[in-house]
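Sequence, structure tokens reproduced for absentees:
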Amino acid sequence: MTWRTKCAGLALLLPLLALTACDERATAARINRPSNPPITTVKPVASSSSIAPSPTTKTPPPNSGSAAYSPYTSTQGFYVDPTSNAAKWVRSNPGDSRASTLSQLIAAKPAAKAFDNWNGQVKNAVDEYVSAAAAKNQLPVLIGYNLPFRDCGQYSHGGAANADEYRTWVRDVSAGIANRPSVLILEPDSLIHLDCLSEADRRTRVELLKDAGQVLGQQSPKTWVYMDGSDGRWTDPSEMADRLAAAGVGGVRGYTVNVANFNTTDQATSYGKRVKSVLKMRYNIDSGFVVDISRNGNGSDGSWCNPPGRRIGGFPQVGGPNTVDALLWIKKPGESDGNCGVAQGTKSGEFIPDLAMQLAGG
């Protein structure tokens, strides 16, 4: 699920928002991501139809994470999915010389599980997954990935057919989680990809994200939700903060940085702190953030699609440098970005043992 396309054109998101200049981008399988061109901005143009940010948030709601409750400390470690592609491969290839390494360093480690409209009855699928984690008093990390016109309709296209279908889907996801601890990564790339949408579609997307945050906060109060906070290089931190505020980040725990990308943990953390600072100063929103470290151990070589020589950036953990909430595997190590790079002839999302061995340092 990768793509390269020209954006549809520029229009303002917020009254004082400088939009990133459109250029070719690429996104990775399952959890699509932008490539890493330099940040380029254009001067804002006044627009009476711009989307306004959410009102200043002074008293965060229950799942914003300001209170004593934390799903991280209320559970005993992250839940490991026994049905992941890596785990299935290890079980199916016990005699393979790579199986032991991949079992220990990839399959046995916790990674986020994606849910969209491919899960059938999503309420039941989410409930089954969260129940399995709850039975072990462990914390499941989920990805909600079903917005209409996701990935700008390209290789990772799909999602809900319309806004009403998405609202129903979000409520089903929330009902599946119920009042149990979880972490939900809400719609990776949804805000960084606003530029390819029409102004009306941008408004709809922002409204859907805000509604999703509100629903999850009310129906799943023990869930910490993280919105799209960019890859850590493409979007100016001030602009990203404006987009997050407009999408209602003040009503959830925070945002993600570096999803499916290769920027080092230090680079991603520095970017996340800059976004956090703008949110606090401009909107009085005190957000947390998480960093995807699934394949950022060697940083970026400028390539976005199955590049050679990459490594995992460490194992998932609660906390991290400079007030990071958690370091997570949001992109699953070893799953291909598509027919490209060092995984020629593979499908996006397919588990490739050689790719996983590279990431594991084998």
Remarks:
- The chain has one domain: 62-360.
- Confidence is low (pLDDT under 50) at residues 1-30, 32-50, 55-62.
- Residues 69 and 191 are 28 Å apart (CA to CA).
